[in-house]
Structures are given as C-alpha cells and as structure tokens.
Amino acid sequence: MDKLALVILNWNGEAMLRQYMSSVLDYSRDEAAVYVADNASTDGSIDFLRREYPECRLIVLDRNWGFAEGYNKALRQIDAEYYLLLNSDIEVTPHWLTPLTEFMDTHHDVAACQPKLLSIADRDRFEYAGASGGYLDRYGYPFCRGRVFETVECDKGQYDEPAEVLWATGAALMIRSADYWAAGGLDGRFFAHFEEIDLCWRLCIRGRKIYCLPGSRVYHVGGGTLPKANPMKTFLNFRNNLTMLYKCLPDSELHHVMRWRWLLDYLAAFKMLLLNRNFGDFRAVFRARRAFRRWRSDFEADRRAIQASRVADSSVCQHTFSLLWQYYVKGRRTFADLP
Q: Do 130 and 117 meet the contact criterion of CB atoms below 8 Å apart?
C-alpha cells in the first residue's frame, strides 16, 4: 500500500501535462506515488507520458467518464492510505505535500484538506476554484476565503490560518481513502462540477472534518476543460447544485430552500438573457431545472441514506445568510465582510 497516491485525471490535456507535469514530479515524487488516470484521450497524452515520464504510473480508462466517475474508476485500482486528486493545470511548489500529510497524520477526525489555491495568471491573487477553502450559504451558493462570486481577492496573508471549511477544492484535494469510500466516493452521475462539494458535505454530515491548510500553496490555471462562459458548464452547475441540495439538506430546510431556489434560478436566467445578452446560458438554466426534475427520483435512496448517516450538524460551515443579499444588496464583496 502507498502512503499517498497523487492522481491526475487527464482528458486531452497534453498541453497542460507538458507545462506542469515536471513540477509535479520534481516536488512530489519523494512523498507520493504519482499516477495519471486517462479518460480515453485522443490528443497524444498517453504517448507523451510514456515517452517523457515513464516513472509516472498510468491508468488508461476505456472512455471519457467525466471528472467524478473517472476518479472513482481510477481510485478503485489504487491501494493507498491517502489520495490526492490533482488537476493537470496545477503548478505545485517545493515541499507542498508536507503540511498536508503531517496535518492528516495528526488529526484523525479530518477526512480531507486542500492547499491554498492561487492563480497562475496573477500569482498574488487567489484562484476562483477554491481559494483558501470553501463554504455554502443557506441557499447552496458556494463561496471561499478569498473569493465571493466574481470578486477574487489578492492574497495578503489574510487567510493564512488553517481553517475548518465545508468543502475543499477538487483541483487539489487530499482525502483519506477510507473516508472517500465510506461516503460513497464522488457521485459519478454529476459528470463534472459540484462533485467535490457534494462529497465534502456528505463527509461533514457523517461527522468528519474538512480543512484548508494555507501552509501549502499551489498555482492553478482554472477552466481547463470548459471555458467559464459555456452553456454546458452553466447547465452542470445548476443541475448538480440542485441535486446536491436535494441529497444533503436536512428535512427542516429542504422545502424552504427549494422554493427559494426556484425563484432565484429563474431570476438568474433572465438576468443572463436581459443584461448579459447570453441566450445560451439562459436556456441552460431552464434545461438544468428540467433535468433535475426528471432525475430527482433517482436520488431518493441517496437522500434517505445520507440523512440516516447524519451524526453532526454540518451548519458549522454552511452559513444561514443569503449570499446574494449580502453581495448585491449589502455590498459585502469579500469573505471578511460577510456576517
């Protein structure tokens, strides 16, 4: 059994592997076994890895299973105490794994953690996908220490203390293999987007903790598979967010939140159409809500199992305020300004 298996899931990411694989191996191979799980790439990724990095362990999947199920299928083939899920567009730094591993070794109530995530394009600024650890508001909108909606802060050391969070970014996620499988792994039906938040929330419900450890830092390109302005990304974000809420919200909150989300989602759709002139995203929100209604019954058993596993009040990191109200009405644009 490996102590730590670092696993990069790749799909047609040869350009990213060429740019960042050397830093991963240089700064990780002494502390982790490095794997690349390939989602049936057609761009030469596999030949490149075999030729340039033969020491990297390669898992070749039979088709593109997406982020969530691709990781599930790859991790089933790896025997390790800890997994570290790492995006292919990450540049790591010297000794970045040490704070993560040491913390997990000494805090057995912690299931998962992440490093501080900074932007490659602007190296003094947090990166959107996870910044310095994530939370949810009452209505399921995610935000981070260092990022609230579109406002991404400069890193001035203001979030450098380790912190318990609700979710850790899937761009660089260390997790105990025992916890990963006890919670059921990533939900493969999500394909991509919100799958790591869903998993972390399920872990919190089971009484396990999630941390951000800014003593470790990495740099992220972001948006490597789907560009930010993409109707498919909008569709997956809305559909998967609603599904996550249905699975994880306690009975006392479910109907209230879902009624508000019906209103808020359609308001968001018309904003995309009228203010942003984005018909593709407008249609994607309607498609997402329709898709959620169609498959919601498929998750009834999941919801029952998750609620039955509830041993802790995960509201420690799920806040009771509305992020939309705080951001757009109150003008509170940074994490430190939120109530």
A: yes
